[in-house]
What we know:
This protein is mainly beta. The protein has one helix at residues 2-18; strands at residues 30-32, 38-41, 46-54, 59-61, 74-77, 83-89, 94-98, 101-109, 112-121, 128-138, 140-141, 150-161. Helices cover 10% and strands 44% of the residues. Strand 7 (94-98) and strand 8 form a beta hairpin. It is elongated, with a radius of gyration of 22 Å.
Amino acid sequence: xxxxxxxxxxxxxxxxxxxxxxxxxxxxxxxxxxxxxxxxxxxxxxxxxxxxxxxxxxxxxxxxxxxxxxxxxxxxxxxxxxxxxxxxxxxxxxxxxxxxxxxxxxxxxxxxxxxxxxxxxxxxxxxxxxxxxxxxxxxxxxxxxxxxxxxxxxxxxxxxxxxxxxxxxxxxxxxxxx
Length: 178
C-alpha cells in the first residue's frame, strides 16, 4: 500500500512539473518578512529569527517530510569570512492529509513559520553592519498537486559590536597622577 501511495505522490509531482506554469501558483507562494537587525558582540553567538509566510491555499513540505520522495524545505545561508553560520533550527511541521492521498499524512508548513539561524562573528571581525545572504528551497503544493521546486533568495543584517574589555586587564594609562 505504501508503495502505491508513494508512486501516486511521484506521479502527481511529475504531472505538476509537466504542466504549464500558468496552471501553477500565481505569484510567490512563500514570502519572507523583513528580518530584524540583530546586534551581536564579537566572539559571541546569537540567534537570528527568519519569519516566512506560505500563501493561503498552499503548503510546503517541512524540512523532514515523511517520504523520501518529497522535497524538504531547506534554508541555505552563505558563510562570510568573519561570521560563522551555525545551526539552523526548523520548526516542527504539521501532519496533514490531502485529497490526493487521504490515508497518508504529510508533514508540512502552512501559514506563518519561523526558522532560526545561529550566527557567531569571530573575535577579530570589525564592528559594523554585515549583510548575510542565502536562499530557502521549497516545493509548494495545493490540495490537488505539487509544483516544481523554487528558491526564495533572502538576506538579513547583523550588527557587530565590540566585545567589552576582559576584567582584570590594566588600562592603557593609569588614572592616578604620579
